[in-house]
Amino acid sequence: MIHSLFLINHAGDIFLEKHWKSVISRSVCDYFFEAKEKAVEPENVPPVLQTPHHYLISIYRDKLFFLSVVQTEVPPLFVIEFLHRVADTIQDYFGECSESLINDNVVTVYELLEEMLDNGFPLATESNVLKEMIRPPTILRSVVNTLTGSSNVGDKLPTGQLSSIPWRRAGVKYTNNEAYFDVIEEIDAIVDKSGMTVFAEIQGVIEASVRLTGMPDLSMTFMNPSLLDDVSFHPCVRFKRWESERALSFIPPDGNFTLMNYHVSSQNLVTIPVYVKQNICFFETGPCGRLDITIGPKQTMGKTVEALMVTIHMPKAVLSANLTATQGNYTYDLATKVLVWDIGKLNPQKLPNLRGSLSLQSGAPKPEDNPSLNIDLKIQQVAISGLKVSRLEMNGEKYKPFKGVKYLTKAGNFQVRT
Amino acid sequence: MTDSKYFTTTKKGEIFELKAELNSDKKEKKKEAVKKVIASMTVGKDVSALFPDVVNCMQTDNLELKKLVYLYLMNYAKSQPDMAIMAVNTFVKDCEDLNPLIRALAVRTMGCIRVDKITEYLCEPLRKCLKDEDPYVRKTAAVCVAKLHDINAQLVEDQGFLDTLKDLISDSNPMVVANAVAALSEIAESHPNSNLLDLNPQTINKLLTALNECTEWGQIFILDCLANYSPRDDRESQSICERVTPRLSHANSAVVLSAVKVLMKFMEMLPKDLDYYGTLLKKLAPPLVTLLSAEPELQYVALRNINLIVQRRPEILKHEMKVFFVKYNDPIYVKLEKLDIMIRLASQANIAQVLAELKEYATEVDVDFVRKAVRAIGRCAIKVEQSAERCVSTLLDLIQTKVNYVVQEAIVVIKDIFRKYPNKYESVIATLCEHLESLDEPEARAAMIWIVGEYAERIDNADELLESFLEGFHDESTQVQLQLLTAIVKLFLKKPTETQELVQQVLSLATQDSDNPDLRDRGYIYWRLLSTDPVAAKEVVLAEKPLISEETDLIEPTLLEELICHIGTLASVYHKPPSAFVEGSRGVQHKRLTSSAGSGESVESPDTGSAAVSEAPPTVIPSQGDLLGDLLNLDLTPPTSTGPPPTTAPGMQLGAMDLLGGGLDSLLGGDIGGSPAMGTGFGAPPAAMPASFNAPISGGLDDLFDLGGGGGLTMGTYIPPKSVWLPAMKAKGLEISGTFVRRSGVIQMEMTLNNKAMSVMSDFAIQFNRNSFGLAPAGPLQILTPISPNQSIEAALPLSTVGPVMKMEPLNNLQVAVKNNIDVFYFSCQYPISMLFLEDGKMERQVFLATWKDIPNENESQFQIKDCHLNSDAASNKLQGSNIFTIAKRTVEGQDMLYQSMKLTNGIWVLAELRVQAGNPNYTISLKCRAPEVSQCVFQNYETVLKN
């Protein structure tokens, strides 16, 4: 199973190591550094590397590499999932996953890693179990700890560890009982230069924030569950009920969690909220080119498109951009060759337009590659797939909780080719 | 307050400071000190010196402090084994603690201390913990058995822990079951045949029950374990599948993939006509698609596995092409994998979309990706016939972009397209030829050369194009050289008249100047083919090639079956069987899919073999296998020529030219020159006699009349006595002795065949290997009656000099194969070079003088012939018998100088100056020849003739 873990920063320094079996010299990472060097961009480092005696399985997240060393045949997905769980836990504990925060909390991180894995087998990865054993640092607690000498390590067996519902601890109490759900959909799409949709799908997620006393048993039903092509659930969801009635029935974890992920890919159901008219060209003669982009609403279900933003990775030869935006601001980063046009709200009466000239390195040949546009946007109060929650009920407890469902549509990987 | 404070050091010396703090009375200070130690440890600093001080802090009721000390112990116990013993008591005591958390912590930590002395103490507490009333302790203890096994496997077996562990599979708590399975799986990896996980329907049932209730990680262990089970029948298979399918909706992708593995494997058992089979197929697609929206690292592993799944069961994802479309910000490793799967899924239904996408990718930035995309277009053309035309036009569009690497890739794939659809798209050749100059990669050059050779008859300037490549022949890579050789031979066979020189050149480059055995062998094969039987050569080289098959990169079916059983593992990522690379598993069982016996369904195993060979090999493998067999049979020993190539010897070259000329005649004249069937099973050289051979007798007569100057009698040709060529020992009782004679211009090989074996010998046949002067049997070996034991028989074999040429060492060496009813035997013998001296070898005086001057001095060699007691006239007469003609004689200061000439069958003239001094038994001879290699032979011949 998982033998060792190395945390490596952007620059390639190992700043934390943890071994669950015998100690493996950090020189094993040299193979990784070699691959990193070769890949140029950190995103392109292959996640599974073979060395003469070990396998290196890594993820790249928040500008950090989580590199695990395994010695025997292990499902690589298991390792990758676990590494993401480590990153999630660190984020959950300290607010973000960064080198400085990990260094500031190095002992806690170390204790956490020790709790999460035993001999390379996952031990406790549920946030609520971990939090019972190692309490997250808060300012109040550290003050109290220093005064009383008490520690932030729990000395009781976490209740969730062994119950058939490990995600929930017993004896939860709240004065305000509330259950909020966010239905968030991301549109992944590729639109070709003529405006035709090449590919489109929706990645949906239902994020929950549940603070309910006792052992509530919730069930959620949808108006149109047949929309969903594929679903994956938090372990708390009873799969049989879903199979038979298309209802989500579950005893929720305490706090924030992801209830389900879903996937809508039948293309006729995927609506593309905006259209993009674009023209980026480079002249055969002379070191310059022209850019003209207009964005307009397509199918927005009567809502306003907000936080509209266009990102373009320009060819290497583009030196600068001299453009005029009718709305919003644009910036061109010379180092990364990224042009960002931040538009904001989309006004259907007055369509935002960005046009002007691009200047190229003199003498450079006409760029061969066409830059792709990446679109960011948000639409509040609507799930673009049309998914709607019809009912949310609670059994098992007597009080009346506050309930709420919010919808949000975002652009995921929304690309327009030129 | 953050932990970074633990890193601050004081000037006094960190270790010293810490030591003081660790021994402090104040609990809080102690704890802070341990934290500092741990902090140093995490960044790889060595704090092992503090071992005794830290261990002293162990006996505490503060759980956090205890845990910290344990962390420290795990890291450093190994380096301080004696000190670690100090901790044992506390461990043993903690294993009895009332708090299950502490019991579990103690047993867990003890297992992590990899010190032999400690493990002895561990056994008792571990035994107790495995039977602990608290499942948390049991599940921790289960993992501890695996740890202990890693340290001391024998101990674990002796103590019976393995059996206890097996019992835990039936534990009431699913988490304990999952951990027991995980521990057993890990142990089983080092004991491939131990049958530790003895799976039977009862245990399977327990595992399936636990599957629903344990953690996500536990589910992975259980699913991976289930995958090793072989269900008894399709009903059991189906019931397991039914209970596993809900796992496909798990949020953890590793659980999903492990479930896919179980389903893919057990599906084999299900009859295909079962409704449930179809349902299952439908259920598999969505989770696989969902995996592709996860993080890129997960996508990568998923894609590698999907690659296997679509090869095994393409129907699962056939409608999901679009999810594999590449986004520009996908990491490169994801892009390449997606592309691979797109081609696998390409079909007539979706080819238009796929092509549009591929064309889009071909304009991206990343060179590797662009190349692969261009190649993919070619693969589509080969896979989906209806799309071929569109693919070709797409490729032409891409060639027009003039982006160098795009053009090169396009040419490589167009070559494959030609192989798949011959005589369909040749109109594009002209466009391809325009880009000849820009090709700098071997593969592209080789492809282009292949195209030119294959379609030489349609390309007007094919010879010029190929010639342009020939200039830098030695700087080309092997594949280009091989291709160039083949292409020129093809060209020659198609347009023989204009390309003789070219083919001569390439054959000599390949055979004489190259160190590469493949190239040399191929060159020799062509050369021999062309010279022995040009018609056969045409059939062989221009044979119709098998069409290229569509999938050249499919995984071999048995490997695929094995890999399907390993979905989700490292093996599936590398597409290699686990035994091939996993070091940790010391011997892995090979897993095989067991398909349902009743349905008789066989896996569609695409024919990969025929496509694996590229265009090159088929051109040298003739359809008439026996011809090749004969050729190879003849190749008695590999050519060992080390001297200069025959191109430097004009005569030799001339001979070779003659050969090709002869071959050419028969080539042009249809099958007139075709080899007569010999009935012996040996391939035979053309029987045609060269023109130069036509009038030996008249030549001889001329000479007779011309002898006047010499005076004396003509003596007969010197005939060396017979010597044993093939001893009976080496030839299963057949002894051959023989000699060579030249009589009236006919060379004969005279042999005595002696049967020293106990059985009758019959069916004799003879064949020569190529030799320096093209000696070859002019007819079959005439031994009409079988040779009975102890009988010997005389045989004379007339020889011609129009056989294939290869320089031998020594020059007059002849390798012979003799076949009889028993076997084929090989021997080599040397013939006197005078056999080859023609009867018209007397040169005109003027010509002699001019030629003598003309031949450069470095071609002159001098030899001494000792102990020869003939006078110059006698010598001259004797030599004349061997067709060495004296042209003039001069006497200077008592020394006779004889000027002599001789002409070899291949047209080489040798001029000689023989100095004979009266009373001196030592002659001096100077030989001048354009091919100085023959001088040594000629000298030897002089010596033998004069002394006998």
TrEMBL record, chain A:
It comes from the Eukaryota. It is a peripheral membrane protein. InterPro entries: Adaptor_comp_med_subunit, AP2_Mu_C_sf, AP_mu_sigma_su, Clathrin_mu, Clathrin_mu_CS, Longin-like_dom_sf, MHD. The keyword Membrane applies. SUPFAM superfamilies: Second domain of Mu2 adaptin subunit (ap50) of ap2 adaptor (SSF49447), SNARE-like (SSF64356). Keywords: Cytoplasmic vesicle, Golgi apparatus, Membrane, Protein transport, Transport. GO terms for biological process: intracellular protein transport. It is found in: Cytoplasmic vesicle membrane; Golgi apparatus. One of its GO terms (cellular component) is clathrin adaptor complex. The keyword Nucleus does not apply. Belongs to the adaptor complexes medium subunit family. This is MHD domain-containing protein. It comes from Pagothenia borchgrevinki (Bald rockcod).
Automatic annotation (TrEMBL), chain B:
One of its GO terms (cellular component) is cytoplasmic vesicle. The keyword tRNA-binding does not apply. InterPro entries: AP_beta (IPR026739), AP_complex_bsu_1_2_4 (IPR016342), ARM-like (IPR011989), ARM-type_fold (IPR016024), Armadillo (IPR000225), B-adaptin_app_sub_C (IPR015151), Clathrin/coatomer_adapt-like_N (IPR002553), Clathrin_a/b/g-adaptin_app_Ig (IPR008152). It is found in: Endomembrane system. Residues 584-620 are annotated as: Disordered. GO terms for biological process: protein transport. This is AP complex subunit beta. It comes from Pagothenia borchgrevinki.
